Amino acid sequence: MKVYYVGAQSTGKTTLTRYTSEKYKLPILPECARQVLSERELQIDSLRSDIETVNSYQTEVFNRQLLEESKLTSFVADRSLLDAVAYSAQHSTIVNELVKRPEFEQYITALKDATIFFVRPSKATLKSDGVREQLNWDAVVSIDSMLKLLLEMFSIKYYNISTDSAQERIRFIDAVMSLIVV
């Protein structure tokens, strides 16, 4: 079983990933973008001012997501390759190269058999994580829109999480998972 939480930054994906991991005994596939950022000792401002750095970074995030997912047959993921493509479209000049890679086409096909929760932004739930740049509502909505476009464009089934209530989010996840978990 593969479960993904996709969505813009600071929408609560990591919290929901942890909950799902604990409740359904699934290993966590952490957010690859954060790992690459840390390993490369990059600052967000350098990713907004140096296009070569951002292109290299986005390529590495794309590759890392593929690599980490290939190591497990069952997991809950804090993000997907779609997230990497959405952020690449927003900040780099390489999105066209990424989506033309054969691995991307294979990924999209495999994603259709996964469970995807699309966590939508809400001003009530936005919180800085201390890693990313200052929160900007327009930037969050832009990434959210890009993800929505990708999900729809590739006809990927997803479950929309748009409530602010943690209790309602958990109940919704449990209801969906009860239909999937055997």
Mean pLDDT, as a whole number? 92
Q: How many strands appear in the DSSP assignment?
A: 5
**Structural class by SSE content:** alpha/beta
Which blocks of ≥5 consecutive residues have pLDDT under 50?
none
**Global geometry:** globular
CATH class: Alpha Beta
Cα(first) to Cα(last) distance is: 10 Å
CATH topology: Rossmann fold
Main β-sheet, spatial strand arrangement: 2-3-1-4-5
Helix and strand sequence: EHEHHHEHHHEHEH
Can you say what the CATH homologous superfamily is?
P-loop containing nucleotide triphosphate hydrolases
The percent of residues in helical segments reads: 55-70%
How many DSSP helices? 9
The CATH architecture can be given as: 3-Layer(aba) Sandwich
Q: What is the radius of gyration? A: 16 Å
Summarize the biggest pleated sheet. 5 strands, parallel
Residue share in β-strands? 5-15%
Oligomer: single chain
**Domain unit count:** 1
Task: Set down the secondary structure blueprint.
Layout: E1 2-6, H1 13-24, E2 28-29, H2 32-39, H3 44-49, H4 51-70, E3 75-78, H5 81-91, H6 95-99, H7 102-111, E4 115-119, H8 137-153, E5 159-161, H9 166-180
Helix pairs in contact: 2-4, 4-5, 5-8
Can you summarize this structure?
The protein has 182 residues and is an alpha/beta fold. The protein is built from nine helices and five strands.
